[in-house]
Design a protein that fits this description.
Layout (H helix, E strand, L loop, with lengths): L5 H24 L8 H13 L8 H11 L4 E3 L2 E3 L15 E2 L2 E2 L17 E4 L2 E9 L12 E9 L6 H9 L14 H18 L3 H17 L4 H14 L9 H19 L2 H38 L9
Helix pairs in contact: 1-3, 2-3, 5-6, 5-7, 6-8, 8-9
Length: about 325
């Protein structure tokens, strides 16, 4: 009761057109042989592109190739993201036809690209960026250097765009409740945990994760939250999820978060947060060095014990 149904109606409305589009492709793709590899299907599609677009013998291969290119299309209500799909611009609207197939959406809808550059685009609250990286040595041969395209995600907040800065200066947006609000203390301090779980699910960039969690930490401290209580929750969460980022231990991520908190707090003039973060950094590094020294001592003791124990005599037959 009282829920706005416009979002659900719009979702069903767009799904109807997407279903018809996939149905016409699936009808043709059933006529193709599905025992081929992706490279063979692409070759068949290339033959199709070179021929007349309505040639009936090759149209099933084109339908199968378009379906596989549309496999990584994702839509959430009115936001669409696609990966390596050159056919969407030509098949965007129902009043256009390409290779004998009708487009997807009605022409009354205006699809605006949200590209933030040649290699990045925004989708919901993330910024997806593509960058080239060398292929692992286990998959590449010794005589060639291959590269793969990797995707990384950072947080995207439309309110940080320049066009929103004037509005934000006139009427600042309240993101989190003040410590003196009427909510329960557990609810107010749970904000940090909620944002932590949000960031760990959608962000793959370690530095961006530390920056965003640091901004939430400092913003809450500026509203009267206790830095000790917030850090206790942050430390517990970092220990609970130690493998969020490859090649980064929970200790390294903890140090990065505290360093970011100290820098952001200094920019905001929260000197008590700066002093607390620097003290915790020093304590964390000292404890880690002590634990590493104890591990080395135990390892050396085990090696000495192994050398002191003589080998048992061979058993008689």
């Amino acid at each position: 009761m009282g829920t706005n149904p416009a979002v659900h109606i719009a979702n069903l409305f767009l799904y109807q057109f997407e279903r018809e589009f996939v149905r016409q492709l699936a009808t043709q793709a059933r006529l193709a042989t599905h025992s081929l590899t992706v490279e063979q299907v692409a070759g068949k599609a290339a033959d199709f592109f070179a021929q007349h677009p309505h040639r009936p013998g090759l149209q099933p291969w084109a339908a199968l190739h378009i379906l596989r290119s549309m496999h990584f299309n994702i839509r959430y209500v009115d936001d669409i993201i696609t990966f390596a799909n050159p056919y969407l611009p030509a098949l965007a609207y129902t009043n256009s036809s390409w290779m004998g197939f009708t487009g997807i959406y009605p022409p009354q809808l205006d699809l605006q690209p949200a590209r933030e550059g040649y290699t990045s685009c925004s989708f919901l609250d993330i910024l997806v960026a593509a960058h080239r990286a060398p292929m692992p040595e286990s998959t590449a041969s010794k005589d060639e250097t291959l590269e793969v395209v990797r995707l990384s995600t950072t947080l995207y907040d439309k309110r940080r765009n320049p066009e929103f800065q004037t509005v934000h200066a006139q009427s600042p947006i309240v993101r989190f409740p003040h410590i003196l609000s009427g909510l329960m203390a557990t609810c107010k301090y749970a904000v940090l945990g909620a944002q932590f779980h949000r960031f760990r699910r959608i962000l793959t960039n370690r530095d961006n994760f530390a920056a965003e969690i640091g901004m939430v930490f400092v913003d809450l401290c500026s509203k009267g939250y206790l830095a000790t209580a917030l850090h206790s929750r942050l430390r517990t969460l970092l220990l609970r999820y130690p493998f969020m980022f490859p090649l980064t231990s929970a200790f390294e991520l903890h140090v990065l978060c505290l360093s970011t908190i100290a820098l952001l707090a200094a920019e905001r003039g929260l000197l008590h947060v700066v002093r607390y973060a620097e003290a915790q950094l020093q304590l964390l590094r000292t404890r880690n060095a002590t634990a590493a020294a104890h591990r080395r001592q135990r390892a050396a003791a085990r090696r000495r014990t192994a050398r002191a124990v003589p080998n048992p005599p061979p058993s008689s037959p």
